[in-house]
Every structure is written in C-alpha cells, then in structure tokens.
UniProtKB/TrEMBL annotation:
SUPFAM superfamilies: Homeodomain-like, Tetracyclin repressor-like, C-terminal domain. It comes from the Bacteria. One of its GO terms (molecular function) is DNA-binding transcription factor activity. This is TetR family transcriptional regulator. The keyword Acetylation does not apply.
Amino acid sequence: MTKMNRQTVVTEALDLLDDVGLEMVSTRRLAKRLGVEQPSLYYHFRTKKDLLDAMAAAAMAPHANARLPSAEDDWRAWFLENSRSFRRTLLMRRDGARLHAGSTPTGDLDRIRRKMAFLVSSGVPEREAQVAMLAAGRYTVGCVLEEQAETDSPDADDLPDDVPVLDHETAFEAGLALILSGLEQHTAASGQASAAPSP
C-alpha cells in the first residue's frame, strides 16, 4: 500500500487523469490506485471538488513557478511569453484545460500583483492591463480546450476555400498577437492623452 499524504494523493490523481481522462477520474478509482478504502481520501480532501482544485493547482506548477518579470524586460515580449508558458503548462496534462477551467483559483495573489505592477510600471494603463491579462488567459484556456478535444486534424478538403488551415500553435500565436496589438494601441492612446497639454 502506498504511504498516503496529501501530496501523494494529488500526484496519483494527476497520473490517473493522464491515464483515463477527466471524465473517468473518481475517488473510487483513485482509492483503488492508492490501495486504500475510498473514505480514507476524505481525510485529505473533504469533497471531490477540493481534490480537483488541488490537482489543478499542482498541474499549474510549471507556469506558477516561472520567472517573474523584471524592470528591464520588454512588456510586450513578456506578455507573449506569459501566455505561451500558460499554454505549455495546460498541455502537459491530459484534459489540462478542462481541469483548470473547472477549478477555483488558489494561485499566489502576490505573483499576480507583481505581474500587474510590471505592466503598469511599463506604461500599460491598469484597467487595460487587467482586461488584457484576463482575456489572454481565457483565450489560452479556450485554445487548449479545442486542441485537447480534437481527435483528428482538420482536413483541408473539408473546409471552404476561404478558410485557412492552421495548426493549433500557429492559430494560437495569431490570436495572441491580435490581443497584444489591441493592448499596444490602448497603451499608445493613453500615453498620447497623458502627454497632451491641458487647454
């Protein structure tokens, strides 16, 4: 029998996720995998939702532990890499986007504040920075949801002539560039308004 603690349960649960997919993850299956009785899991997690939240937090560790931006970083390059890191992390686990989308955020709020402070200190208006970070995050989850749900690559012959065939990464990068372009425009407009002389 596996010596069980909270970390062991989460690790085994993530391995189970990779093996069977989110739909098939259950406390019964997990208990069998751990070699324990199902009720013993509730010592560590009161509900399945608590377990899924812990799984989502653990699955996000590669992104959550990524280097924070520093003052000399270009905010545009950092904005792109932050979203790419998020995407890579979601793709590391089977159904990673679905697991994350259904979780209650438990991330380090201090890291989020530091990211926001970096954007604002780089000249991005606070409101636009908040909206852009939220939009990029939701966009990334949506892209990965589609990618992980797809069983076959689209056949160019099945699509209308005016619809481009893009692989998932190319499509993701194109959309992300549009989000960044919009943020750059808002930032430039805000800078021009601030620099305008008072009447």
